[in-house]
């Protein structure tokens, strides 16, 4: 398997150079002045764009600019983001953990619910649970993230908000953001040590159960938004794939041997039915990332997606470029992990 | 010469059987027996009608009426098929009709009333008007993107599939690279560079969509290329381009066109998402994504009346969900029908 992983890792630079060259070529559609604006760090600099064009050689041919840009990246300089008023790399480092936390919390229900409902539906074909799964998957599949997220906010923060605020001392209150304001102020004061950047884990490590619960409350709605939309696809594929496997000869053989029904279903049928689901996982992941951009914007969640969305609106080129490059690397690595998982689930697959 | 003449005669004499043959074909029968497929088809057809007849379903705003040459007295002519303005509004619609009329300039959304049956967003934009005309925008985006994406995809895919070798390798690695970036993100990058407008949204999504089509067509071409009739055509002396265009593509393109046209639903969704983020239509343009983005500031009602602004998020959301649902049901049924395993 190791040579396979190494071979796939070679694709990483291909994607890196491919994506960056595409973006740099696209950038050539802008005038040097527009590009120079991305480098300006203060009002004075913004007034003197000619100096920046000179300094960074923004009217050179594209390959010169690209080479220089690569040199900068090699030194860990991805440019300067106007939206957050700090270097792009700093912003990415700061905002990646919240996004990762959101995605990790979403993946658990997506895979869990997707596989559970899909299995239950296939094993009880045409029964109630099957019909329920089919309706859930069609509805979930057709709910766009931005519609569903807004609706959840209107219902649970807007409509039921007043009720939830008073109910059980506000224990189940949900609101946009990552933490409630008092906690944000407390965090800024510096008594709270950040170990991982993942708020829930940091809160536990600091022994602050109240912050942990507060972070969870803030995660409920965005995670639901992401999970309902993404798990619908897994449900559908799991169901049809398991139905397919259940009619295979080896499943009948296993039953004929007198094996217990649950052993046949889980060990023989489901394990094989998971293979197409895994194929889908790569697509679900890309969908999840697109979903994260929108979800973070709706719920005002301070992650990479929210930053990128506002950067795109405010024409912060350096930020959008850095975000896209970083994200494509993440996607390539995640897809590599999916491919490695193939080998674990399906021993027939040889990586040579 | 004689053969084509005969064929034409045959077509002229019996125009129905071809249609009936299609209608009673195995595929169509399977399709017609599926209630979900029918529901989806009806929903999509419904939206097509809304898009076509948008001028009749709404009262034109001030600048739209002016561009159509309508005065208050002749306003009803737009619904009268005998008047030229009826046809003009349907076919040669002035751009100004895509601008949502404003009933007030109040920053607070107004509840449903006689003037605006579904209420207005902040700024007094009529929700009903925006949604009806937004259907047109949606179809324009969908058809444009699928058309451009398909054209580019077919060109790239046929070059790649037919020539093979190094050309194929380079083109396929290129599609790998494009597809490794999530579509929405790449579209965001492209729009940031090109500038924010509906047209650039369409361009951006087309640029994201084509690699998929190119790969599907390439695979089909590789399959078709091995068949005897292509070898036969080549043996008869047909050269590269002729073999591609006359023999290979016509036999490989069928399923691709269906796959692509079913993508209209998801294309519209991506465009709406971009508009929602503020990267698409200019303020006041009839566009679903923008309609729902208005709702972002009106989640919370005034104290004591938490549901006050429900209509700002409910109607735009509902219409987008119905549109996507229709296409998904239709697409699902077609994929089932086209899947060789299920026959």
Description:
- The complex is a heterodimer of chains A (352) and B (343).
- Chain A has 352 residues and is mainly α.
- Chain A contains 17 helices and two strands.
- A two-stranded antiparallel sheet of chain A has the order 1-2.
- In chain A, a hairpin with a 4-residue loop joins strand 1 (80-81) and strand 2 (86-87).
- The longest helix of chain A is centred in the middle third of the chain and has 38 residues, at 209-246.
- Chain A is globular, with a radius of gyration of 24 Å.
- Chain B is 69% helix and 0% strand.
- Chain B contains 16 helices and no strands.
- In chain B, helix 4 (35-52) packs across helix 16 (310-338) and helix 14 runs parallel beside helix 15 (288-294).
- Chain B starts with a helix and ends in a 5-residue tail after the last helix.
- Classes of the chains: A mainly alpha (352), B mainly alpha (343).
- At the A-B interface, helix 2, helix 8, helix 9, helix 15 and helix 16 of A face helix 9, helix 10, helix 14, helix 15 and helix 16 of B.
SSE blueprint:
The complex is a heterodimer of chains A (352) and B (343).
Chain A: H1 2-9, H2 11-27, H3 32-37, H4 43-47, H5 49-56, H6 62-74, E1 80-81, E2 86-87, H7 88-123, H8 128-142, H9 145-159, H10 161-166, H11 181-189, H12 199-205, H13 209-246, H14 249-256, H15 261-298, H16 304-313, H17 317-345
Antiparallel strand pairs in A: 1-2
Helix pairs in contact in A: 2-17, 7-8, 7-13, 7-15, 8-13, 9-13, 9-15, 12-13, 13-15, 14-15, 15-16, 15-17, 16-17
Chain B: H1 2-13, H2 16-23, H3 26-33, H4 35-52, H5 54-57, H6 62-67, H7 84-91, H8 127-163, H9 165-180, H10 183-194, H11 198-225, H12 228-235, H13 240-262, H14 264-276, H15 288-294, H16 310-338
